[in-house]
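Entry 14. Ran structure prediction on the chain below.
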Amino acid sequence: MYIKRHLETTIEKLNSCFKVLLVTGPRQVGKTTLLRRLAAVDRTYVTMDDISVRSLAMTEPALFLQRYKPPLLIDEIQMAPKLLPYIKMYVDEQGQNGDFWLTGSQAFELMHGVSESLTGRIGIVNLLGLSHGELIDRPAGLLCRKMNFCCAVWRSRLCYR
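Output, structure tokens:
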């Protein structure tokens, strides 16, 4: 059973503003489930948990992006940091808003790599565990909606620096 997340609207707004969207958060909070739920049928899903996929991404990143074309959802991007500069080149040359959706841990190394490679091209959302309101299927309150969107916009603006 899927539980609707309050950040869904924020993710949809950021998707229309940025070429790359990154959803970070602790393990098992539903990052992949959320993005797969929101993804259109034409968005390809690949996970770096798959050893052959990860190997291709790490050894031949250009070939990886030829094989897996946007719109693309890449799960566990922190396992393939060499892919980030190639995503940057792709979005600079031919990218459109929403081309790449990434999930990853909040590891410092991932965030450092993202900020270096994708500055100004990425919207970042930090997903936490289910809130009480989400569990009881209550809509986000006015303060919650404003804070979630403002927080996401604030985080994405950090990438411009």
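The chain has eight helices and five strands. Will compare against last week's run tomorrow.
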